[in-house]
Amino acid sequence: MGNNLCLGKRSNKKKNDLEHQMFMQEIDYQLDKLKEIPYRQYQPPEYEKKTIIDLLQVIDIRSTHQSIIEQEQEKEVENVDEAKPDQFNQYQELGKEIITQIQQKIQEFPQDEKNWSLLLDDTKSPHFLRLFIRQIQLPDGNKINATFSQFIVPCKAERFIQFMGDFKDQIKLDNRIDQFKCIKKHPEKQEQLIYLSYKSVSIVSARDFIYFKKTEQIDKDNDIWCDASRSIIDNSICPIQNKIVRGNIQLSGYVIQPLRNVMKQEYFSQRFSTIVFKVESYSIVQLCSECDFKLSVPLYLAKGQVKQEMANYINLVYRSLL
């Protein structure tokens, strides 16, 4: 009992340290933003004489207006701008590059595993999630926390890809998402420009991302697919808003294939020995993410948060695919 109490105190202390650090970073960010606002002489507000009837009418109008906004956002998800093929020519090399890089990172992971911290090795849950984290330094000198995960899903690759690309389904899984939509898509290839924004939470400002995503079947004979994303810089698509911090997806994506493809390897045959007779029903996903949320969080503080959020998310994904 004493040990549990000590562990609880340590956990609370880490949580408080993280919240304090995030608070200070947010204060610094907002102060910098205030410096950009031109000075204006204060004008006292003018008040109007309104009855309670007038007030209730305004509230009703605002409620109706909010409902209209929500309906418009749903329409935006459905009504995607299908671009002409030549509009995606500028992303052709980017698509090849990120697809190759995702494959390389996943292939090199077994040799590089010693440089990662294991957060979770769940052999009791049906998804068999393994989760790793490490800190990496970007070319600009900024340090971010990268993650690598491996899990199985009860469906074929095409079903998983369709689910992960369904913006409505993804919004349901994560209540922090404010907007998630396709801005443009290639009419023939599986290429998209996507906008994703997260709501502000507590003292942390809202974040958003604009990125290019490409999905490709990299091995038809073995039904292996790769999905890769990277942020693009194009403020003409979605201008940066003052109240939102624009993050950067350095590289994010996954490789998915039938579980049977890897069962000849000793490690996988032992790990999934309990479902060996149902192997045809599953696919294995290997996912890596290098995202800069423009919020510096020390690795030791990020571990607990990433572990909890990722475990919850994979649980929801797995159940949704049953």
TrEMBL record:
<dbReference type="InterPro" id="IPR002913">
    <property type="entry name" value="START_lipid-bd_dom"/>
</dbReference>
<dbReference type="GO" id="GO:0008289">
    <property type="term" value="F:lipid binding"/>
</dbReference>
<feature type="domain" description="START">
    <location>
        <begin position="112"/>
        <end position="322"/>
    </location>
</feature>
<dbReference type="Pfam" id="PF01852">
    <property type="entry name" value="START"/>
</dbReference>
<protein>
    <recommendedName>
        <fullName>START domain-containing protein</fullName>
    </recommendedName>
</protein>
<dbReference type="InterPro" id="IPR051213">
    <property type="entry name" value="START_lipid_transfer"/>
</dbReference>
